[in-house]
Amino acid sequence: MNRSQLRSGAGICLGLGLLAAAALAAFSVGAYPVSLGELARWALAFGGESGLPEATELVIEQIRGPRVLTAMLVGASLAAAGAAYQGLFRNPLVSPDILGVSSGAALGAVLGIFLSLPFLAIQGLAFIGGLGAVGIVYGIAAAMRGRDPILILVLAGIVIGTLLGSGISLIKVLADPYNQLPAITFWLLGSLSAVNRDDLLTVLPLTLIGLAPLALLHWRLNVMSFGEEEARALGVDTTKVRLAVIAAATLMTAAVVAISGVVGWIGLVVPHLARLLVGPSFGRLLPTATLFGAAFLLLVDTLARTLAPTEIPLGVLTAIVGAPIFIWLLATSRRQWQ
Amino acid sequence: MLRLDDLSFGYGRTIIGGGLTLDLARGETLALLGPNGSGKTTLFKTVLGLLPALAGRVLVEGADSAGWSPGQRARIFGYVPQSSPGFFPFSVAEVVLMGRTARLGPFAAPAAQDRAVAAAMLERLGIAHLAARDFPRISGGERQLVLIARALAQEPAILVLDEPTASLDFGNQRLILDTVRRLSGQGLSIVLSTHHPDEAFAVADKAALLRAGALLAAGPVPATLTEANLSALYGVPVALHRVGGKVLCV
C-alpha cells in the first residue's frame, strides 16, 4: 500500500467517522430527545418490534429519519458537484452555483410561491429553473465557438445569474409581504424543515444519476485541470467531458436545491477540506468530499433546528461556519493553487 | 512519418499562415525557427489538431488526420507545452501518469501497467527521484523534463516541443537539448520550435524558417540555416562561426 492509498483510506475513514457521529447527534438531539441507548435498541430491532414507546419510534422513523438522510444527500451532492467544478473550471473560488443553477432554481421556486402553487409544484419549478438556467448559459457558451470555452461559460454564468437575481428581486417587490415574502426569504436561505420521505425518494435517484458520470470520468477530470489545450493534447475529448460533468453536476445540484432551497458554502468549502486531506486526485477526492459534505450539512442542520426556539435558516449557518474555514484555508494552503 | 500538405492555419477566420508543405521522416528532428508572431505556436496547434486546418492537410503515415479524435491524435503526437506550473498540487508521478490517458478507455483509470510505463519514463529521463514531489513546486527545468516524460508516456510516434528551452537558465537549456538529442538517437521523430539557431544546429536534422506565416526556407540544417537565410528571417545581420565543432550564431 503506498502513501496516496493510505491518505485516501484515512480520508474515507475520517469521513465515515464524522458522518456516523453527526448522524448519532442528529437522531438524538432535538425537541424530543432520544438517548443513544434507545437508538441502539431501535437499530438492533431492524424495523421489527423494538419495545420503544410509539412516539420515540415515530420521531426516529418519520421525523428525523427522512430529515437526516436528506441532509446527507443534499450535503453530499453539493460537495461532489463543487469538487468537480473546481477541477473543471480550474478555480478554487468556484462552487456549484457558478453556472447559475441556484439562481435559476431560486427564480423557479420564488415564482411558484408568488403564484401560490402547491409545494410539489414549487419544487418542480425550482428543479426546472435550475436546469434551464444552466442550459441557457451552456447554450450561450456553445454559440461562441473558438474562444476559451471555460472563460465564456463563467462570464455567461455571471450574467445570467445576475439577470435571474433581478427577476427574483422583482417578484419579492410584488409579493404579498405578510404571507409570501417570509416564505420566499426562508426558501432563499435554505431549510430542511419541510422535507419528507417522498422528497427523499424523488431526489435520491436523480443525485445518483448525477454522481455516476463524475465517478466514471474521475481520471479525465484530473487531466482537465491542466487546461483545455493540454487536456486535448493528452487525448481527452474536452467538449464531451465538459458537457457530461456540467450536466451531471447540474442535475445533482438542481435536484437537491429544489427540496432544500439555496444552501451556500458547502460546495465551496468542503472540497477544499477534502483536498487538503487526500490530495487533488479526483478518484480519491470525490468519495472523501461526498462523505464530508454529508457530515457537514447534517451537523449544520442539527444545529439549525436545536440552537434556537425557531429554526435558523441553513444558508445563514453554513455562511457563519464556512466563511472562517475558507479564510483559514486561504491562509494555510494558498500556495497550492498557484 | 509526418507531412504538411499545402497547409493553411489560423484562428477562426483569421489566417495566420498558408501554403506550408513540410516533410518529416521517421527518426528525424525538425527545428522550427521564426521571429515572435511568425505563427510557430499556431502552426503547432494546427498540427496537433487543437485548431482546425483552414486549408490543406496534416498527413500522418499518409493518412489525413482531419476528423481524428483527441485520443487518436494523442497516440501519435506527444505534446510538450511551454512549462506551466499546473493548477492542483499533483505529484510528479501522477502528472506523468496523465500521459497514459490516450491509452485508456473513456471511463478507465490507469492500472499497474500504466504506472510501470510512467515510472519507466521517469527513469528514462533520469528524474525518478522526483516522483513523489509536488509538480508545482519543482524547478522550471525539472518541470520541463517531467512534461517530456509525460509526453513519452503517451508512447507517441512524434514528439512536439513548443520552445522547450524558453524561460530556462543556461544549464537547464543544455539539459533539455541533451535530452532531445538522446531521444532522437533512440529513434523518436521530433518537432521543436526555438528562438535560437544554435539549438537547431545542436539537435536538428532539418530546419524550417517561418516568417509571417510563410516558409522562408526548409530543408537539411546546413543548407537551410545559412547566414543569408537567418539574416532575412530575423531582419538583422547574422554571422555563423564554427567553434570546436559547434556552430554559433552572432
Automatic annotation (TrEMBL), chain A:
Gene3D superfamilies: ABC transporter involved in vitamin B12 uptake, BtuC. The chain crosses the membrane at residues 68-86, 98-119, 125-143, 150-171, 202-221, 241-270, 282-300, 312-331. Keywords: Cell membrane, Membrane, Transmembrane, Transmembrane helix, Transport. It is a multi-pass membrane protein. Pfam families: FecCD (PF01032). One of its GO terms (cellular component) is plasma membrane. Belongs to the binding-protein-dependent transport system permease family. FecCD subfamily. It comes from Oceanibaculum pacificum. It is found in: Cell membrane. GO terms for biological process: siderophore-iron import into cell. It comes from the Bacteria. This is Iron ABC transporter permease. GO terms for molecular function: transmembrane transporter activity.
UniProtKB/TrEMBL annotation, chain B:
Residues 2-237 form the ABC transporter domain. Gene3D superfamilies: P-loop containing nucleotide triphosphate hydrolases (3.40.50.300). InterPro entries: AAA+_ATPase (IPR003593), ABC_transporter-like_ATP-bd (IPR003439), ABC_transporter-like_CS (IPR017871), P-loop_NTPase (IPR027417). It holds the Pfam family ABC_tran. PROSITE patterns: ABC_TRANSPORTER_1 (PS00211), ABC_TRANSPORTER_2 (PS50893). GO terms for molecular function: ATP binding; ATP hydrolysis activity. Keywords: ATP-binding, Nucleotide-binding, Translocase, Transport. Belongs to the ABC transporter superfamily. Part of the ABC transporter complex HmuTUV involved in hemin import. Responsible for energy coupling to the transport system. This is ABC transporter. It comes from Oceanibaculum pacificum. The lineage of its organism: Bacteria, Pseudomonadati, Pseudomonadota, Alphaproteobacteria, Rhodospirillales.
